[in-house]
Amino acid sequence: MPTTTLAGLLSSSSIRVNPDPPSPSTPIADSISTIHAFLSKWDPHTSLSSGFLTAASHLHSYLLHLSTSSANSSHRELVRTNSLLQSAMRRLDQELKHNLLAITDAQSTADQISTVRAIVETMLSTGYGEECITTYQSIRRSAVTSQLKQLGFDISTNLSRKLFKVSWEALDHQTKLWIDAASRAVCRVFYSERQLSDSIFGASPEPIRDSVFASVVGDIATTFFSFPETVSMRARNSPERLFSILDMHEKITNLIPDIEVLFGCEPAAMVLSKVTSAITNLIDAARMSLNEFEKAVRKAKPHSSPGGGILSLSRYVMNYLVCLFDYEASLHMILGSMPQELNTSSFDIQISDDWYGSPVSVRIAWLIHVLLQKLESMAESYRDVALSYLFLVNNLQYVVKKVKSSSLKDSLGEEWVVAQEKKVRRYMEGHVRSAWANVSAALPVKEEEHVERVREFEMLFQKALKERENWVIVDERMREEVRQLVEGMVVPAYRGWYQVYRRTTEVRFTPEFIRSRILVLYEDPESPSGLNSSSSSSVSGSGSNSSNSAKLLCRLGCYMPQEGDLSVRHQEELNETQKGELLLQCHSRDDVAQQGEVSLRLQIEDVDSSVSE
């Protein structure tokens, strides 16, 4: 509140309290002497009496009377009376400070509030309003600042000019403190201060009460709400700060009704203006951070994961998105008015106008789509086509599991999940076909070739075991299904050949050995009993898994030979089949690491360490 405006209000005659005029039967000089004697005997260490306040009011009334008198003696009495009144006001000002320091908030004792209110009304009525407001403002501003500091927000260290110079680590810490303090600052500190000023200045008109409140907390509240605005300006190009931005946006928007009640008066308009500006900047920063996040995914350095396992980028993005969806309400406000310039025609499913359809759902689906495109591009870094497929299997399966185990499933919908699961299935089929069909096809077709071809089979089989011993299939169910498919492609055909030629040809491996090696290859790397626990299962069994595997083998271009059936597909046919197997879209591989990307990944990837996959 500008001082000139408050001064103008204080000088208005409408707020003055005019005491009863002195009795005509009592000389003015005698009355002054009586009041002087009363003031001289007053002890500031004792409780303030109403008689002292009444004497001060009468003194002011006498002063006004003398100022209009034309008597020659009036000038001398006027000077004396004015000096006495100033002395009385100095003592009242000291008493005001003493009592204000004893008040914590509007919940202080009624006697404390009443005493301060009586002092304030006396000082206002005797023309010392500015002095009264200055003292009140000084004491209460200090009290409010102290209360905010106790909440963790130090005004002196959170000025905008200082925040642009502190380190990110320090700013992150201060942001957390602000978020924790915001609700209590508005609903406890500022609200209590409003109650206190209304109680103490209750006899004054509403404009005075509004102006006093604004003069105490206006600048402080403006600095407090400048904090999220300053942080948003620094963090708008930093995806790892998006969650802090959303936390502040959520906090401040939830407090809007209380803020409007407290600062809706004209003298406090600057606070509302700052809050509006802060929200606007937070929205802009959130949008820019989302765009930067997408760019970071697109520009992530292409690299492969050992054994085709889950890429750190996949964990980073999916954990980021799962955490992001917790802010759905804020994101809806942020993205609702934002043009969705997305090429949704490239999605795996067609998005209709009523598709689960909030802007948040569309944006999440788009960011996952960007990740999947990046994974397909990264798959090309593998020289082995089978390993490339395995990489896609592991990473897309991880994406699907993260969606299904989180609230993202409700957002993206069952149709999206089904579409991605079908894609995982196709990748898995491609992996099995690329990895093992050539081994199966090495078995002899013609009797005169059986010696050379069986040696070739043995060589290819051993080579496959050696090359793939460090390959990873993360999902246990899928690992078992791949094992059954591989066993179905290799073991029955080998068993049929073995039973015919084992007596006439030197054979190194028995069908049981072939099967046991496949079991070991696909056992759970963390389970020491994988071979034993899996040895009882067989693709040639009569269960539903066997039936499903047989159907899938036919889809793979293979079939399960019956005992004694030596016919298999020729290698030339396999080569033709493999042509065009892996048609992956190629994207830019600019080796540009966004600032903070690594730290963001380390922070967000930790989510997986505490959540069972």
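The above is record 1. Record 2 follows with the same two-line structure.
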Amino acid sequence: MDHEYSCSSPCTSRSYYDSTQPSSGATSRSSSEEPPFAAFQQIEDVHLGVDLSRFAQEVWGLEKAAAEKILDMTVTPSLDSGESHWAENLGQGTNDDSDAHGHKSFLDLCASLLRDASKELGDEENAAFSDTFWDRFRQDCAPSCESRRVPDVVNTWKPLPPDGAPPSLATVKCFFELKGVSQERECRGEEVEEVDEDGGDDAVMDGSANEEEDHDKSMSAAGSQDDTDDQRSKYSTPPKRPTTTLKRSLNSAKDVHDEEGPSAKKPRYNNDEPALKNSLLPLYAVKALASSSRYYVVGLVVDRSTVTVCYFDRSLVACAAPFSFTEQPSKLALALYAMNRCDRHRAGFDPHLRALATAKEPDSEPTWPVDRVVGAVFEYPDTPSSPGICFRVTGVIRSPEELLGRATSVYKGQRRLLDGTFSEEEYIHKLSWPLQTSVSEADVVNILKARLPREAHQHLPELLFTSTSTPEDLSLPQLRLGLNPGARDRRVLRVLTGKLYTPLWEAGSIENFKKAWLDCVECLHLAYKLGGVLHRDVSEGNLMAKPLPDGTVAGVLNDWDMSQFVGDDGDDELSDPGRCTGTPPFMAIELLRGPMRHYLRHDLESLFYLLIWAALHYALAARRRAGRVHPAVADWTCITADAQPNWCNKARILLLDSSLAQEIFAAAKPEFRGVVGEWIGPLRNLFVNAHTCHWLRTKAEEPSDEETLGGLLTFKTFMDAIKATPRTWGIPGYLD
């Protein structure tokens, strides 16, 4: 469908660089301002009312007989006379002392119920019981824990960190939100401390956020948008202080049959307002999943006396039927016992991520997950597509900021050699959760290498290891709970290890930049013409440079997981703001407007925008990229429902008499002045002329093909505009 645009509307979303570079400091946000936070925006499929006993069995692995025995217990919560009303008012105190008192009372009750359940099952002395609780209101808690970015309570392995510091989310089994606390504090108008993402709360709680983040070198450093509905989150990064808003998506949540049937007493919750509404639990889930390549995570919302147990993975969210722990304390005992007894695999941790010491002992099975990804290893056995690999992580390139969807993580590091040592050369390790129906990047690269001349192989990524795991392979609880999404929405875990390349802004000279860019242009066309593949995601993170011994570079066209084979039918050939393909700052203007088939000319247009972007931001001699987006193209980075600011800005650039284009030309970095005159200006004229002629033909109802706009936008006209002679690759008639 077409969208009506008014080019005067401002963009209020956070920008591209806000999501790809560390923040320079904390900023404030009004509580009434809606943040573009992916975890809140994306929860469109929440399964409610899952039976708690089944949840404990299928997620945490508790035996059915044990679950039934705990539920049959007769438990009377022991509250002293001074605390007789605390359960009904948990989190509704008027000062921090009463908040802390409510936390302590709740944890005392939890400890009591856990002892009762253990005694009932006769395993009070079980050595496997090594868990403990951490409470951010405890008296010796570190001052940084006052931020709401730290969960209220976490269940984790002993020992706790010293000095009251919060445990890393990389090792947390389960987290709790005592919901009323945050609501009451916000109602009192208290400002919650915001933290620089380079340190502070995030650095303490996130097992990967406090590691070195290298946004400059990667096979997929800038990332891309999926061809699914999870992609509006690519540049919608978490605000410094999360608000507590979950919109329409939760109001249309699915229900799952509650095997327990109706409760004898009406519980104190509203079926029309799910527990995750106004909850910070999705934020904690995002950070926990991202901290250590975790498969799934569980959290509890405690709203006064009502408890809801919630499950999060990369495909869906599920909530057990809420219950009141004052009326049904045995249910809380069941949840506490099951979470405390589960091992790290049942808690959702990636079994391939191990501490380096345990990796040297392949027969050993670690009990605890690693608390820091950097320094740990990913170890995989042989797969049908490649031999096994052991990869030691030396840095974090990209951590996912969305809850549901592709959620790509990228690490850099070294691979273990045959002699047991690790390579000096660095590689990348990429994990993502694409739709099962999407094309595998490894398959595309292998097919292209089989179809393209050997000379062109240097312009494709070199992959060392690849694997694909289905939900069945990973034994995800969603299957056992009967909540697995339909075939169209099923996600798989894809792992890829390959060579680490250099981003274009580190090319070292304008000559190297131009050579790498041209190599990628030619590879793009060659893959389309001979390989039958459209890339569909040209961006600054996907055009890379490979240094050569003579000081020059070769361009490498990277990240083929958004690509599509030419001639494939189906919805994947459409692009719109809800089902789009590409990285917003570099997407062709037509793809921002609504459903449309993706053509080669759209990728050529992305290459044009990349030149403009580079001219405004790259300091090649210094091997640096500007820390802030240039104002002339700031609208490219704004994410709105209709892509309005991005579309309007690019439309102004493509006007016949564009003052914005002249402003951009004048603002280009000194190194790019020649590129402006030789490439950017002529390419702009090419696109202006092609779009104008196509519009006039369409208005006059004259024929004009969409694929090349009447033959005006082709690889040949593109190369002619910049006066570059393309290679023929030794193929007769290649350019015909």
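Residues 1-42, 80-86, 181-272, 569-578 have pLDDT under 50 and may be disordered.
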